[in-house]
């Protein structure tokens, strides 16, 4: 009975290790020029390819959160009365948790500011490692059998198991 339970646990563990997340998330803090949080600001995130938008208001602490976003290029726009409209564009990858803080400038309601050419955003919300392979990279890879499961061994901190015995020996530790 113990061997059956061990075998079942090993098979479930192997299957779970190949699971992927297909969505990302964006969180952030909206601040004024004095670095104080701006509660009640309207934050809109819009896909640049599909033009689909989501909106949310910042919390009393000035925080916002957008979850379950498919990988795409996005633009975040923040509006609040008494401040200039501010925008930021970025690309979101699979299973990426992006922290995008925004600082509003004092100004008229009709003024618009678009920020371009900024430094890359850092993923500070998570310590997880991951990567995304472009189609051209996958096509150019020298895979022996052209089996897509061989791509798992290219991911960060992944270990390819060739036999069930190797998988079982890993779970006995």
Structural overview:
The chain is an alpha/beta fold and 173 residues long. The chain has two domains: 61 residues, no CATH class; 91 residues, Carboxypeptidase-like, regulatory domain (Immunoglobulin-like). It is built from three helices and nine strands, in the order αβββββββββαα. It has a five-stranded mixed β-sheet with strand order 3-2-5-6-9, with no helix packed on it. Strands 1, 4, 7 and 8 form a four-stranded mixed β-sheet that branches. Helix 1 packs across helix 3. The longest helix has 16 residues. The radius of gyration is 22 Å and the shape is elongated.
CATH level-two architecture of the largest domain? Sandwich
Mean pLDDT: 77
CATH superfamily of the largest domain: Carboxypeptidase-like, regulatory domain
Number of domains: 2
Which CATH top level class of the largest domain fits? Mainly Beta
**Alpha-beta content class:** alpha/beta
Order of helices and strands: HEEEEEEEEEHH
- What count of helical segments does DSSP give? 3
Tell me the fraction of residues in β-strands, as a range: 25-35%
Tell me the radius of gyration.
22 Å
Which stretches of 5+ consecutive residues score pLDDT under 50? Answer: 163-173
Task: Tell me about the largest β-sheet.
Answer: 5 strands, mixed
Strand arrangement, major sheet: 3-2-5-6-9
Feature tags:
disordered C terminus; 2 domains; alpha/beta; Immunoglobulin-like; four-stranded mixed sheet; 17% helix
Q: What layout of secondary structure does this protein have?
A:
Elements: H1 2-17, E1 24-31, E2 42-47, E3 53-57, E4 63-69, E5 72-79, E6 85-92, E7 97-99, E8 102-103, E9 112-114, H2 135-140, H3 164-171
Parallel strand pairs: 1-7, 1-8, 6-9
Antiparallel strand pairs: 1-4, 2-3, 2-5, 5-6
